Amino acid sequence: MAQNPYEILGLAKEATEADIKAAYRKLAKKYHPDLNPGNKEADAKFKELNAANDLLSDVEKRVAYDRGEIDKDGQPRRQEQPHHTYRDFADGPQGNRYHFGSKDFDLSDLEGLFGELGGRSAGFRQPQSDVHYTIEVDFLEAARGAKKRVTMPDGKTLDITLPEGIEEGQQLRLKGQGRQTPKVGDAYVGIHIKSHPFFKRQGNDVSIELPIALQESVLGTKVQVPTIHGPVDMTIPKGGGSGLTLRLKGKGINGGDQYAILKLVMPKEIDSELEESIRQWAISHTYNPRKHMETSV
Amino acid sequence: MKTLEQVLEILEARIDRAILEDYIARKWVRPHRKETNWYFEDIDIARLELVCHLTQDIEVNDEGMDVVLSLLDQLYTMRAHMRHLTHALTQQSPQVQSEISSILSRLAKTEETS
Asked: Where do the domains of chain B lie, and which CATH numbers do they carry?
């Protein structure tokens, strides 16, 4: 504090007003307390700067000071009345008005903070006691439920009970199967269901595309249809063609239904016998299944 | 809480109504709004003084101001977190506290050497 205001601003006595302004601006940028929170030295320096600037930027006061009429603390307005800077409020209870993110502090913020700091100094990271895995399960295991013993990539073996109808992306929590850090964590097992060659799933309903032969379609028949609970008999009605959907009640998941969507499959080869008989039939039976399209176009 | 008129009076010649409204529009200060009036808490006024200081004395431009204020807000958020954390640590037993301070000094040393 023994410095005179010129020294504080790093100026000579001959400095112009512009010099003073420039020097103050440069130093104020460096020492502004709001830009240096917690730095007492910067705080003190900034107060000095302000006092020096107040004195030197006021022509009357500067002249008075140069003449020795007032000392460097001649009229230090800013030092006498306690001046609250933004920091006093920003660090106070009102501060959260301008805080980033959530207004209140909660523990998840702390976790985030640990995470950010942990990137640099691994020792500070909070040990994670929960572990996360993903397993692939077969379509039928997921549909019917199953008990599985699975060895995870980290060597841990888990006994997993899949409830009937577990869905893609669902997570199972195995209490106490995580790491001991010393808190005993849980294991979370994410479920990925493999697709099935012919069963498809919409919630608890299962659908299947059921190929039928020409004669089955024309004459009707009884066929065996696979369901997730094993094969069941189903009647194909006479004339049941492609797209006809038949329901097998309760044969889906958890009391859901199974739908069989018929798909007419023509014989590999149209032999002359078939060709001739259809030709004969067509002479007296014309029907146009596209009739409804003609009127609307 | 003070009205916009009172705030203009407090800041005397440092700012006029148009500039203050511009600062509010830019969300540099965020006073409370009731019907058509603005109401300023102490922190809003102090922040306004800071913004005036940065724009007028240090000549931070508009784009720079967005950056400066965003960094400041992050800094003060972080400081609040640190205060809470410090407070939580002071609630721990002396044994835990000394363990933590030894971890911290160990970390400080590894940072120095790395």
From this structure: 2-113 (1.10.1660.10)
